[in-house]
C-alpha cells in the first residue's frame, strides 16, 4: 500500500504521524490531504534512513538540492561533500542527477545515509548508463532504469511524460525565443523526433505507474517545456504541457501513485502568482515543485538571487517545494561553495514565504531574533540565524569600539540609543 | 526656481529633457509628473557633475548605495573605492552617511565627481561634527548643518521630521518587539526625550524647507519608526508616522520643494504591496524610497538576498527607489566586496520589478540574453549580464569537453540537443 492507498483506506501511517507532528497539524488532517493528493509524502519503502516530510498545501515550503556528477566533472568525493552541506543547511530533499560513471554506487551510498528524501531523473541515467545512441534506447530500456531506481529506494522521480505529441505540436506552433531548456525534455524531444514514436513515458504510462506504485515512488511530473527566458513564460507551449500534466496527475492518483508537478523556469514577477494558481487548478491541487522561477535572464553568476526572489513569491502564492538554484546556474557544475550559497538562498526564500503564508510557528525564529537584537545579544542572534557561521565571521572581522554595538553604527547604534532613552524614562516614572 | 517650480510654471527644464530621453517618455509628460510631485528629479543647483535621473511613477526603479565612514572605521580611501564600485555597477544614487572626521572634504570630493545623485543625513553629521552632547545641540545647529550640505551640492537629504510628538505617543502606546531601529530616528527620539522639545525638524519645518528650496534639495522624509523586525511591520507606530509624512509631503510641495518618502524596513512578503499602496495613498503619489524591505529577520550575512526579495516585490508594487542592502547589514560596516554584492543584488531586484511593471524597454536586455543563449554565444551572454565579470570567471574556471556547452550539462546541453534536432527537421523539410 502506498501512502495514498493507505490514506484512502482511512489508515494513518507512521509517516503521516511524523509529518503531522513536525508541521503542528493533526494526523487525521494529514491523512485527508494525502488521500486527495494535496499533500505527497515521498517515501520509498526501501529508503530506510528517511525522515519523512510532506510536500503540499498548508505545510512548510521544502527545499531540494540538485547534485551529481556529469561527464565533464565526475568527482564523487566532491558530490559527497555537497550532500553533507545540503543536509547541514537543512535541505529536505536531494536530487542525484548523476549521468555517467558508477551512478548506482553513488545512489546507493546516498540513499543509505540520507534522512532527506532522494529524487532522480532516470532518463539521465538511462542515457549515461546504457551506452547506446539515443534513438536506440527503447521504451523498455527506459522502464528498466526506472525500476532499478525504484528498487534502490529513490523517493521521487522526475518523469517527462507530459511532452506528448499534442504538446510538441503546440510547441512547434508557438514560436519561442529559447525553445526547450529542460535537459530531460530536450532528450525526450530528440528521441521522439529520431524514432518517430510517441513519448515513451506517456505511451507506457500505466506500466510506469505500476513500477512506481510497487515501491511507493512519488512521480514528479517534469515540465519539458518550461520557459528558458522571461519572454517565453506562460506561453502556449508551457500551458499545453501543463494541461497534459493535469491529466497525468489524475491517472497517477487513480493508480495509487503520489504526484508532484514541476513548474517553471524563467518567469517575470508579475506572472508568478498566475502560474501557481493555474497549476493548482489544472493539476487538481497537486503539490507544485518549482525551479526558480528566475525573475530575469540577465544575472548569470547571481541566479541564486533571481531564484530566491521568484521562489519566495511562488511559494507565498502557493508553491510547495523549491528546487534550489546556485550561483553556478547556466555557467558550470556547482562546487561545494555554490551548493552552500544556493541552499541558503533557497531556505531564505522558503522561510520568507512561510511567514507570508502564515505556516504555523514559522515566525518563532524571527521572534527569537528580534528578542536577541533588542538586547544586543550577539551569540543569540548567530544561533537563530539560517547560517550561524557567516554572520559571526563578519561580526568578528570588524570589532566595534563600544561593546554590544557593531561597526555599522558604533556609538550611533539605534537599539542602544533607544534602550538608554527608555531606561531614563523608566527611572523618572513615579513608581 | 526648483524643478517643481519650473514644472508648475510650464517650463521643461534641461533635467526633465534628460530624464525623458533616458526613460523613453515625452518631456511634457515628465514635466506634468514633476509638477504634481509624482516624479522627483533630485538635482542640487550646485552639483555640476550630476547626470540627472528621475525617481517616481512609470520610471525605471533606481538604486541607492550607502557608504561613508563611522567612528569605528574611518578609512576614506576605502570609501572612495566603494564610490567607484557603486558607479561601475550602475547605482543611480550614493548616500554619504559619514559621521566623523573630515566629512566635509569627503562630501566635496564625492559631489565634485559623482554623476550619480548624492544624498546625506545631515543629522549624523551634526552629531559627529558639532562635538556637543546630543541634548546641547539646538534646532539652529541642525539647520546650519542642513544649510552647509545644501551649499555643498547635496541632491537629497533624509530628514526625520515625521517623528512628531503625536507619532511618539503612538509609538509609546503601540508596544513593539524592537522599538526604534532607525539611526536618525533614535537620535531624534533621544533628543526629544532629553530636551522635552518637539522634533526640531518638524518645529522648524518651514525654515528647513526654505533652505532646501534655495538649492533645490529634494527632501527625503525619513521613517524613524520603520519596523526593525517582521513582527513590528505595518503597526500603529509605523502608520502613525506615515500619516505625518503625508502631511509633510504636501507642505513641502506647497513651498516648492521636491519630496521622496522613505519606507520600511522589515516587512513580511504578504504585507509589502499593502505598504506600497498605503504610502502612495497617504503621501499623495510621492515617490517611495524603500530600505529593503527585508522579508525575514533570520538571515544576517545574507540580507542582500532578503532585501532583494522584498525590494523586487515592493518595486513591482509601485516603489520607485531601492536603497541597497549588503551582506554586512546588521553586522559591520560593509567593505568593498560587500558593496559590490549589495549593489548587484539590488540592481537585480530593480530590474526584475521593471520587467514586471512593464517599464519601456526594460525587457530589451533579457531578449538579448535569450538570443545569445539560443546560439550558445558565451561572450554575448557575459556582455549583457548585470555583472560581466563573475559569470565569465565561473565559466572559465570549469572548461567543458564539448565546445559551446558548459559543465552543468556537457553533452546533455538542452539547447544544443534541441538545436541539432530542429536542424535535422529543417534538413528533412521539402523546401
TrEMBL record, chains A, B:
Q: What is its EC number?
A: 4.1.99.17
Q: Which family does it belong to?
A: Belongs to the ThiC family.
Alphabetic keyword roster? 4Fe-4S, Iron, Iron-sulfur, Lyase, Metal-binding, S-adenosyl-L-methionine, Thiamine biosynthesis, Zinc
According to its UniProt record, which cofactors does this protein need? [4Fe-4S] cluster
Q: Which GO terms describe its biological process?
A: thiamine biosynthetic process; thiamine diphosphate biosynthetic process
Protein name as it appears in the record: Phosphomethylpyrimidine synthase
User: Which InterPro entries does the record cross-reference, listed alphabetically?
Assistant: ThiC, ThiC/Bza_core_dom, ThiC/BzaA/B
- Annotated residues that bind [4Fe-4S] cluster are located at 406, 409, 413
Q: Which GO terms describe its molecular function?
A: 4 iron, 4 sulfur cluster binding; phosphomethylpyrimidine synthase activity; zinc ion binding
**What Gene Ontology cellular component terms go with this record?**
cytosol
Species name: Berryella wangjianweii
Catalyzed reactions per annotation:
5-amino-1-(5-phospho-beta-D-ribosyl)imidazole + S-adenosyl-L-methionine = 4-amino-2-methyl-5-(phosphooxymethyl)pyrimidine + CO + 5'-deoxyadenosine + formate + L-methionine + 3 H(+)
Which pathway does it operate in? Cofactor biosynthesis; thiamine diphosphate biosynthesis
UniProt binding sites for Zn(2+): 266, 330
> How is the cofactor bound, in the record's words?
Binds 1 [4Fe-4S] cluster per subunit. The cluster is coordinated with 3 cysteines and an exchangeable S-adenosyl-L-methionine.
Its domain of life reads: Bacteria
Amino acid at each position: 500500500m502506498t501512502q495514498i492507498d493507505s490514506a484512502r483506506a482511512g489508515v494513518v501511517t507512521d509517516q503521516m504521524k511524523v509529518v503531522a507532528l513536525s508541521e503542528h497539524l493533526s494526523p487525521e488532517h494529514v491523512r485527508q490531504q494525502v488521500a486527495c493528493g494535496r499533500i505527497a509524502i515521498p517515501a520509498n519503502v526501501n529508503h530506510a534512513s528517511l525522515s519523512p516530510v510532506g510536500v503540499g498545501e498548508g505545510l512548510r515550503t521544502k527545499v531540494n538540492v540538485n547534485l551529481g556528477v556529469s561527464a565533464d566533472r565526475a568527482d564523487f568525493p566532491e558530490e559527497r561533500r555537497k550532500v553533507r552541506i545540503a543536509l547541514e543547511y537543512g535541505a529536505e530533499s536531494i536530487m542525484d542527477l548523476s549521468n555517467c560513471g558508477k551512478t548506482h554506487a553513488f545512489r546507493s551510498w546516498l540513499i543509505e545515509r540520507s534522512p532527506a528524501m532522494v529524487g532522480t531523473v532516470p532518463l539521465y541515467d538511462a542515457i549515461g548508463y546504457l551506452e547506446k545512441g539515443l534513438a536506440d534506447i527503447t521504451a523498455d530500456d527506459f522502464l528498466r532504469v526506472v525500476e532499478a531506481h525504484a528498487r534502490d529506494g529513490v523517493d521521487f522521480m522526475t518523469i517527462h511524460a507530459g511532452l506528448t505529441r499534442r504538446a510538441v505540436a503546440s510547441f512547434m506552433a508557438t514560436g519561442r525565443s529559447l525553445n526547450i531548456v529542460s535537459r530531460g525534455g530536450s532528450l525526450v524531444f530528440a528521441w521522439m523526433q529520431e524514432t518517430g514514436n510517441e513519448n515513451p513515458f506517456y505511451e507506457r504510462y500505466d506500466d510506469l505507474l505500476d513500477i512506481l506504485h510497487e515501491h511507493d515512488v512519488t512521480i514528479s511530473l517534469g515540465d519539458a517545456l518550461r520557459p528558458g527566458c522571461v519572454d517565453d513564460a506562460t506561453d502556449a507551449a508551457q500551458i499545453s504541457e501543463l494541461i497534459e500534466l493535469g491529466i497525468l496527475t489524475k491517472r497517477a492518483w487513480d493508480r495509487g501513485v503520489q504526484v508532484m508537478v514541476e513548474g517553471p523556469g524563467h518567469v517575470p514577477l508579475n506572472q508568478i502568482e498566475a502560474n501557481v494558481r493555474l497549476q493548482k487548478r489544472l493539476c487538481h491541487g497537486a503539490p507544485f515543485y518549482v525551479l526558480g522561477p528566475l525573475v530575469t535572464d540577465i544575472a548569470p553568476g547571481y541566479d541564486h538571487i533571481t531564484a530566491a526572489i521568484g521562489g519566495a513569491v511562488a511559494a507565498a502564492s502557493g508553491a510547495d517545494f523549491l528546487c534550489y538554484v546556485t550561483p553556478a546556474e547556466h555557467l558550470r557544475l556547482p562546487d561545494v561553495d555554490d551548493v552552500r550559497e544556493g541552499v541558503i538562498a533557497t531556505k531564505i526564500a522558503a522561510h520568507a514565504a512561510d511567514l507570508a503564508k502564515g505556516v504555523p510557528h514559522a515566525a518563532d525564529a524571527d521572534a527569537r531574533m528580534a528578542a536577541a537584537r533588542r538586547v544586543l545579544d550577539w551569540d543569540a542572534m548567530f544561533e537563530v540565524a539560517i547560517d550561524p557561521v557567516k554572520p559571526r565571521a563578519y561580526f568578528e572581522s570588524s570589532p566595534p569600539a563600544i561593546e554590544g554595538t557593531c561597526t555599522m553604527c558604533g556609538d550611533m547604534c539605534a537599539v542602544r540609543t533607544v534602550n538608554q532613552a527608555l531606561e531614563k524614562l523608566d527611572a523618572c516614572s513615579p513608581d
